[in-house]
Amino acid sequence: IALPKLSLQFLLSPNAIPSVTLIFPNFSLPLIALKFLFHRSSWLIFYFPSLQLLWPQTGKVRSQELDDSKQKFVGNGEREDNFNNTYISTIGIDFKIRTVDIEGKKIKLQVWDTAGQERFKTITTAYYRGAMGIILVYDITDEKSFENIQNWMKSIKENASAGVERLLLGNKCDMEAKRKVQKEQADKLAREHGIRFFETSAKSSMNVDEAFSSLARDILLKSGSRRSGNSNKSPSTDLKTCDKKNTNKCSLG
Ligand SMILES: Nc1nc2c(ncn2[C@@H]2O[C@H](COP(=O)(O)OP(=O)(O)OP(=O)(O)O)[C@@H](O)[C@H]2O)c(=O)[nH]1
User: Fold this and answer.
1) pTM, two decimal places
2) How far does residue 178's CA lie from ligand 1's centre (Å)?
3) Sequence-ordered list of residues with C-beta below 8 angstroms from that of 206, at least 6 positions apart, any chain
4) Atom 13 of ligand 1 has which residue's CA nearest to it?
5) Over the stretch 225-237, which tens digit does the pLDDT of each residue have?
6) How far is CA 12 from the centre of its chain?
7) In the chain, which end has fewer C-beta atoms inside a 10 angstrom radius, N or C?
8) CA 173 to ligand 1: nearest atom
């Protein structure tokens, strides 16, 4: 008998709807439906942006897969012709496996390609900790990207594990005519931080293998020397100069 009275009181109160749900369980069905709809819509609102985050990433992986298969199909054709010039920005993290040969041993590297853009910094810094090596890449045709290296160095100091192996790369060295960052500037910066520096080209593959091998070798050496108590750096990697005039060696490390 008391229930309807109670429900009326509750209906008039600001908390009416949850109270009615408690008193009349049969009312709860539409309310649950409402709640479900509400939750579902909020879930959808939260879910859709994350889908949008995933889509371009998938697109990037797919375009790279297509590129790889194109390279296989073309066979020994010039790699430059198959270079993927379509720019799809990395969103958050992109994951790749690369195998390098170090003194006859195959070393599998797990490479986490992080977005360079400032707005993804919170996501990317979360992945620093635990990384054994970090490659900092700037674009030799873009001064800002070089200036940004200082910020990344600071961020690594704050977020990465102590003693993480670092490597500085000046990429796009096939674009000499558009060069904005001189080799000497980067060399100086690398020396200040006590790290190796190479100029590379993802387009012509210049020094790309050398860069990965060098980092892997330094990581191996460091972990080996940690065990043996010796902390000497490995001898520098056999590098090629980016400008075509001198294709012998250029070790800046
Ligand atoms: N000429 C030339 N172009 C390059 C080279 N490396 C990358 N590019 C081009 O530069 C653009 C950006 O390349 P990405 O590798 O996606 O650059 P990123 O720094 O990873 O960019 P985010 O994914 O936004 O972090 C693309 O259009 C590439 O084709 C290179 O060595 N030489």
Assistant:
1) 0.65
2) 15
3) 173, 174, 199, 200, 240, 242
4) 87
5) 665 655 455 444 5
6) 55
7) N
8) 31
